[in-house]
Amino acid sequence: MACIFILLGLGAFVFAFLLFISAPYGRHRRGGWDPQINGRAGWILMEFPAVAVFAFLFFAGINSKSPAAVVFLALWEFHYLYRAFLFPALMRGSSVMPVVIVLMGILFNVLNAYINARSLFTFSGGYPASWLLDPRFLVGSIIFLAGFSIHFTSDRILRNLRKPGETGYKIPAGGLFRFISCPNYFGELIQWLGWAVATWSLAGLVFFLWTFANLFPRALSHHRWYKARFPDFPRARRAIIPFIL
């Protein structure tokens, strides 16, 4: 429980910080944040702990033998194997990111994976096989997979904006980019909302709240950046929630 409160406190701090200062990587990269690391390597180092810690605690857990526990493992690893390996492998260009951002990402992923895995596989009392037919699990899993689909599709659109040899930024189009500037972030929010519902756990809810605290301010920063950089940016497009914000 102490770790949950620590994560909540860190989330509140990150939310307040990012509302005023954009994390200095990607399009918001700027000086004064050395040392830097290769972007692909940074993503792998940040995301792999979530893969490893969650899997280790699954096999070490006392409630990890049920079919429901195996499905939770599969959903978690499905996302994080993508983020740790496929996403950086598909990246184009040669971006860099500050080492401090990588270290913060590692800290979060270790703590978050620990909290969620311990909640599911040690402290939950176990999920029976019948949980796989529970409306909370069914609805949550559908929401999770829908969010991943939005996230993955949006990443692909962003990767394909530039033709080989091109540099610079363009206005994304297609998919949910018709309505919001950051559908990739919206997809992640939907994913972890689905996770919170499917697991019906405090740890899952805290993860969703942290995701919001991290991605919502960054989406606002992206949206302001697009509007300032491109005079023809669609004015009806919102930042992260279609038709609302």
Topology, element by element:
Layout: H1 2-20, E1 36-38, H2 39-60, H3 67-90, E2 96-98, H4 99-123, H5 135-159, H6 183-199, H7 202-229
Antiparallel strand pairs: 1-2
Report on this model:
With 245 residues, this protein is mainly α. It folds into two domains: 36-130, no CATH class; 134-163 and 170-245. Helix content is 65%, strand content 2%. The chain is built from seven helices and two strands. The chain has helices at residues 2-20, 39-60, 67-90, 99-123, 135-159, 183-199, 202-229, and strands at 36-38, 96-98. The protein has a two-stranded antiparallel sheet with strand order 1-2. Helix 6 (183-199) runs antiparallel to helix 7 (202-229). The longest helix is centred in the last third of the chain and has 28 residues, at 202-229. It is globular.
pLDDT averaged over residues: 90
Helix content: 55-70%
Total discrete domains: 2
User: What share of the residues does DSSP label as strand, in percent?
Assistant: under 5%
Instruction: Point out poorly predicted stretches.
Output: none
Query: Rg to the nearest angstrom?
Result: 18 Å
Quick description:
By secondary structure, the chain is mainly alpha-helical. Helix content is 65%, strand content 2%.
Keywords:
single chain; 245 residues; mainly alpha; 2 domains; two-stranded antiparallel sheet; 7 helices; 65% helix
